[in-house]
Amino acid sequence: MLKKFITQKARQTQKLGELLAQELTTGQVICLSGDLGAGKTTFSQGFLKGLKIKGPHTSPTFVVIKHYKSKFSIFNFQFSKKQKTKIQNIYHFDAYRVKAKDILDLGWEEIVNNKSNIVLVEWAERIKKIIPPNALWINFQGLSQNERKITFQSHP
Ligand code: ADP
Ligand code: MG
Prior knowledge:
By secondary structure, the protein is an alpha/beta fold. The chain contains four helices and nine strands; from the N terminus they run E-H-E-H-E-E-E-E-H-H-E-E-E. Residues 40-41, 59, 61, 122 line the site of magnesium ion.
């Protein structure tokens, strides 16, 4: 899977995050890569809004991890009949100021192995070695002051 989008204002990047929230499958790890100011937090805010999580969805840059409880249910097509699965927790990580070891110490393995969790990781490229192979990668690139290129792919 490779999908590219160009957004022309922050609101559009947020909207893309909201749309992704509707496309979720359970146990997903979503890795956000790209430079400072590229739009990772803006996208995450839209994503959390799409999951009906009450704001403010402040950046986890300084706290490293933010946890939200979810009441959101998604359809799971794994079995032949349509089945709803509840997402219990959303974890929003930011690896800008830390190393993989620090993220592991926050209970990373347990969090990503729980299928009822959804995990967002900003600066995921800094902790690539601990990211599960089935993660969704989204790269953010600034093209101009208000333009961003956003690329979805299954591998970094
Ligand atoms: P990051 O988390 O990647 O460091 P942020 O989302 O915190 O980036 O910041 C992005 C900044 O760029 C915000 O101030 C936002 O308003 C601005 N911006 C301008 N145009 C866009 C766009 N098309 N998409 C996302 N952010 C944009
Ligand atoms: Mg950020």
